[in-house]
Design a protein that fits this description.
The complex is a heterodimer of chains A (388) and B (203).
Chain A: E1 3-5, E2 22-26, E3 30-31, E4 37-38, E5 41-48, E6 58-62, E7 88-89, E8 94-95, E9 100-104, H1 136-149, E10 157-161, H2 163-174, E11 181-185, H3 193-208, H4 217-220, H5 225-239, H6 242-248, H7 268-281, H8 286-298, H9 309-312, E12 319-325, H10 333-345, E13 349-355, H11 369-386
Parallel strand pairs in A: 6-9, 6-10, 7-8, 10-11, 11-12, 12-13
Antiparallel strand pairs in A: 1-2, 2-5, 3-4, 5-9
Helix pairs in contact in A: 1-2, 3-5, 3-8, 5-7
Chain B: H1 7-14, E1 21-25, H2 31-40, E2 43-48, H3 51-59, E3 64-66, H4 69-72, E4 81-87, H5 96-106, E5 107-115, H6 120-129, H7 153-162, E6 166-173, E7 179-181, H8 187-192, E8 195-201
The chains are: A alpha/beta (388), B alpha/beta (203).
Chain lengths: 388, 203
């Protein structure tokens, strides 16, 4: 281990009063699934709450594709509240008065952990496309190194939604002895053809932007903002549902009485998506988006186990709570349930819930009282079993 | 806690051996599974449809799958459990015979409890009033009842035989949930019992 310090962010910090968290550097390189190594490795992370004397109350939160380590506190770049501050905080279901919450930016990310926008030590220039392809398992390996450094041998719970849920499943498969309980939310054991297809649309949008410049845009002082915004817009549709779009926007017009007979944002939904795209560009790196979407595409937990998902969990002793949402068509309840059945086939202790909502995949980030109630109840019972 | 357990559930609990692996299909709020875990060291799993009940199970620390007996039992391997329980639920399934077959396949033993539509009050209500019966145990109207496949004790015994099940033990239930051992084919309980509990073994 090389040392601790403040994380360096790609974008300037706008909230000077915000907690920027920590960064830890490892001298030993991270051995990646692609066969390459990544080093030195820096992992940026946040913690909330206090680790108890027995080190038995740690909760590892894994973030999704465009998330970061700022789970429950103000984002230093955007100034927005933590992305899961409805779930994590004092008195919240993941109660920081009782639990020690750790969340780190994934490998390949752009909020302080080593990713394609960082300077490669060997070349002295940003990695760009020289950054090696990383996988969900590589992300989990880096998290395990962080936990080692923090003196946490076992986590009371590892929890996350979407790509965060993939990491949760990978944790249970790769480090079964370190996981007391696992809560994968709105995810699957593999990325479906449809999901890979949407990711490919996003990547092509980025790479088609002339400002992408073969991934070397940092050297040219540009960024493929238009491509990245389009990628975000397309992806954002997949996070919602037809019913929710209809309920929120319908065919309502944006600041006008009638359609303009042009291509401006006539409809509220257009305006909304454009805003999502533009806001995203201000905080995210285009190459990171390429790498992290690829990591999700490559995720297929059964593939490492002769195609039999149950074997991936052969040594899992954790208690599982799998949470899905009825209107999630990106990671439908059936795919979540498939994981539950694989765990059942191993006689694992698994609960599965299917929460009724019209808010689609994004429901896991929103105010869903049944989700809060289930997770709170689950964590309380796990905490009681380990004296946390 | 055991004092609070519904009497028919307490009767089911008595049929479950210590340390058994149990699947409770339609486990409700998990009262039976929790009782079995604490008093008999049972390794229990539940299947339950209602969100509220699923949450209640999770809070109790019980593993529960939100799902439906009609669609989900097919996912469970044969012989995966020592006992599969279906309590006061078979009459609400779409395909009771298929559900029963799965139950007999999944559990080395099965425990099934059901309301008896052959009870004299039910019969009298239909004969005298000419309307679909509503009793204390079956209080719904015909148009809002979830109980779409009601049967009598005799009906169920015939189905169990047709599925090749061996009836190892049968209990008659009265309206207070008190139990009395009965012969499965006896005509008396089919008129006098409010419900029944069967311990079955697949052929």
């Amino acid at each position: 281990m090389a040392g601790m310090g403040n994380p360096k962010f790609l974008r300037p910090v706008t909230r000077t009063d915000a907690d920027v968290g920590h960064a830890i550097s490892f001298d030993a390189p991270l051995e990646l699934d692609c066969g390459k190594t990544l080093g030195p490795l820096t992992v940026a992370y946040m913690t909330y709450g206090t680790l108890n004397a027995e080190h038995s109350n740690a909760v590892l939160v894994c973030h999704a594709l465009t998330g970061d380590q700022f789970v429950a506190s103000s984002h230093p770049v955007t100034g927005k509240p933590g992305w899961w501050d409805t779930m994590v905080g004092p008195g919240k279901p993941i109660d920081t008065d009782r639990f020690f919450v750790v969340c780190s930016n994934v490998v390949g990310g752009c909020m302080g952990t080593t990713g394609p926008a960082e300077i490669c030590q060997a070349s002295g220039r940003p990695y760009g496309l020289d950054f090696p392809l990383v996988t969900i398992r590589d992300m989990v390996r880096a998290q395990a190194m962080l936990l080692d450094a923090l003196g946490i041998e076992k986590v009371m719970c590892v929890i996350g939604g979407s790509m965060g849920g993939m990491q949760v499943l990978q944790w249970a498969a790769s480090f079964p002895e370190r996981v007391v309980s696992a809560v994968p939310i709105a995810c699957a054991a593999k990325h479906s053809a449809q999901n890979i297809a949407f990711h490919e649309v996003g990547r092509q949008a980025i790479m088609a932007d002339p400002d992408w410049k073969g991934g070397t845009y940092q050297l040219h002082g540009t960024q493929p903002s238009k491509g990245l915004a389009v990628a975000r817009m397309a992806a954002h549709i997949t996070y919602l549902s037809e019913a929710a779009l209809q309920r929120k926007f319908g065919r309502a017009l944006q600041d006008r009485e009638q359609v303009s007979f042009g291509f401006g944002p006539d409809f509220q939904i257009e305006s909304y998506l454009r805003h999502q795209g533009v806001a995203f560009v201000d905080r995210f790196d285009a190459n990171s988006y390429l790498y992290i979407t690829r990591a999700m595409d490559y995720f297929d937990l059964a593939a490492e186990h002769e195609g039999v998902l149950a074997r991936a969990f052969a040594n899992a002793t954790a208690r599982f709570l799998i949470v899905s949402f009825t209107s999630d068509w990106l990671f439908p309840p059936a795919e979540n349930k498939h994981v539950a059945h694989a765990l059942n086939a191993n006689a694992a202790t698994v609960s599965f819930v299917e929460i009724a909502t019209d808010r689609g995949h994004d429901a896991f980030l929103l105010d869903e009282p049944e989700m809060f109630a289930t997770i709170r109840g689950f964590l309380n019972s796990v905490a009681a079993s380990v004296d946390a | 806690m055991s004092a609070l357990l519904r009497p028919d559930l307490a009767a089911i609990a008595e049929m479950i051996p210590k340390g058994a692996r149990v699947l409770d299909v339609g486990c409700g709020d998990g009262a039976l599974l929790e009782h079995l875990a604490t008093t008999k060291g049972v390794d229990g799993r539940g299947i339950e449809l209602s969100q509220q009940n699923v949450n209640a199970c999770v809070v109790r620390g019980l593993p529960v799958m939100q799902g439906d007996a009609d669609t989900d039992l097919v996912e469970y391997p044969s012989g995966a459990f020592d006992v599969a329980i279906l309590s006061q639920t078979i009459q609400a399934t779409r395909a009771p015979k298929t559900v029963l077959e799965h139950l007999l396949r999944i559990g080395r033993r099965s425990v099934i409890s059901l309301p008896n539509f052959g009870h004299w009050r039910v019969r009298a209500s239909l004969v005298l009033n000419g309307c679909m019966p509503r009793t204390q145990a079956l209080s719904y109207h015909w148009y809002d009842t979830p109980n779409i496949h009601l049967c009598t004790i005799a009906d169920f015994v015939a189905l169990a035989r047709e599925c090749g099940a061996v009836i190892e033990h049968a209990l008659a239930l009265d309206e207070k949930g008190r139990t009395k051992t009965m012969r499965a084919e006896a005509w008396g309980p089919n008129i006098l019992a409010d419900g029944a509990i069967f311990l079955l073994r697949g052929a």
